[in-house]
Amino acid sequence: MKNVLLIVAALALCSLQVRIADAMNIDRAGRSDRDFAAAAADSLEQMIKEMGLPTTISAAGGSIEAIDAVADSSFEAAQSLGLTHDLPNGAQSIRKILMTAWT
Question: What is the pLDDT of residues 31-51, one digit of tens each?
């Protein structure tokens, strides 16, 4: 669950994760936004495993050497879209997520 949750977090923040959980018809059942988003990540991870797909960047054949470039270009894209308010450390915020999703 940890890796999928971090990948989802790299793509969107908690409010967007809540929208994803709603779209997946996850039962809210009094859960906090964080728990609701985590339930969606758990469901997504299970679906990915059932399809036999990799759940980490390394298992997908990603290059650790490329992480800096991916973080930098992702941050540039976020800047162009005005979505950097939740990335307090710039590209380093993204790099940290990618490194956690590596293994």
Answer: 888 888 889 889 988 999 999
Phi, then psi, of 13 in degrees rounded to 5:
-90, 180
In the DSSP assignment, the letter for residue 56 is S
Instruction: Tell me the two tokens of residue 102.
Output: 């590596």
Cβ-based neighbours of 99, under 8 Å, separated by 6 or more: 67
Domain extent listing, the chain? 2-50, 64-102
Structure tokens belonging to residue 4: 């999928």
Rg of the Cα atoms in the chain? 14
Examine the pLDDT at 5 and tell me if it is beyond 50: no
CB atoms within 10 A of CB 27: 9
Whether residue 29 is predicted with pLDDT greater than 90 in this model: the reply is no
What's the CA dihedral at 89, 44, 34, 36 to 10 degrees?
A: 160
Length, in residues, of the chain: 103
